[in-house]
Amino acid sequence: MKNRYKISEIAKIFNISRQTLIFYHKKNILIPDIIDEENGYRYYSNEQIWDLFFLLTLKKAGFSLEEIKAYSEIKNSDKSIIFLENKISEIDKKISELKKSKKTILKKLENIRDFSFTSTKEEEFKLEEIEDIKWYSIDMKDETDEGEMATNYEKLNSFAKKYSIDDIEYITMTEIKNIETVKIDGGIVPVKKVGIVIPKNIAIEKSEELILGKVISIKYNNPYSNLVKTYQNLKSYIEKNGYTTYGYAIEIAHELTISTEKGIGGILKIVVPIK
Fold it and tell me: Across the strands, what pairs with 243?
């Protein structure tokens, strides 16, 4: 068995460059076992092969250069155990975060696939019963300020994170009593409140019941530029059929926006509680 390996041999074994090994040497991460004083050649021992194997494993696992250096300097077994246990905890946390990110991306992918810009499809309004929901909301100071709306949604996202609410359902409470006065082109539906659904198994002091019950509903699957017209059509349908409302509508969505070549839009369930 060989007990010395040249730097070129080590580089070949691990399919890394000589420069990487020289860099590790300069950073005191892996110092050659022997350095020939006459020619400066570096030689590595059998033990260092396994040291390098593990150090490269740490690199693949996401260890920073500083962490690899810190670990290489540990000569105490107890400290080594603590160091690696802490890193395992960090890796577990990253795995959990990546799983959440994957879930979010998959939901986004599903929404984009479902999103349709078919303008010829006739709007379908229906009468149904919907369970009341618990929600946490933020009042809008300016009911047509999209900047304020975006800021409030960021606050809601932080709120959801604080209470570990992963599958967020966004709620928008909109005014419809004077919707016929809003311009179809470029007009914005006035927003009274924005909020999120609170799961029934989570107790939050600031949450409140949102009474729905009997509603007229429609699934909206279009660019937001068409939203005012849909609300106007919805109000006309309600008045034509003799329903009495509370003057507002609720939008329920898992995704705030979907961007496509036809513009920004969304997949919403719009419901109008009726008396």
Answer: none
Whether residues 192 and 268 share a domain: the answer is yes
Check if the beta carbon of residue 271 is closer than 8 Å to that of residue 260.
no
- Would the pLDDT of 120 be above 50? no
* Global pTM value: 0.63
Residues 141 and 261 in one domain: yes
| Tokens 């074994």, located at residue | 13
Q: What are phi and psi of 186, to 5 degrees?
A: 85, 0
* Mean pLDDT for the stretch of residues 224-244: 90
Residues 32 and 68 in one domain: yes
Residue 197 bridge partners (DSSP): 135
Residue 20 CA to residue 13 CA, distance in Å, equals: 13
Q: How many domains does the chain have?
A: 3
Whether residue 257 is predicted with pLDDT greater than 60 in this model: the reply is yes
Alpha helices in 3-76 (DSSP H): 7-14, 18-26, 46-60, 65-72
pLDDT digits (tens, 9 = 90+) for 215-229: 999 988 888 888 899
Closest CA to 191 of 233, 244, 237, 153: 153
Asked whether residue 173 falls in the same domain as residue 194, the answer is yes
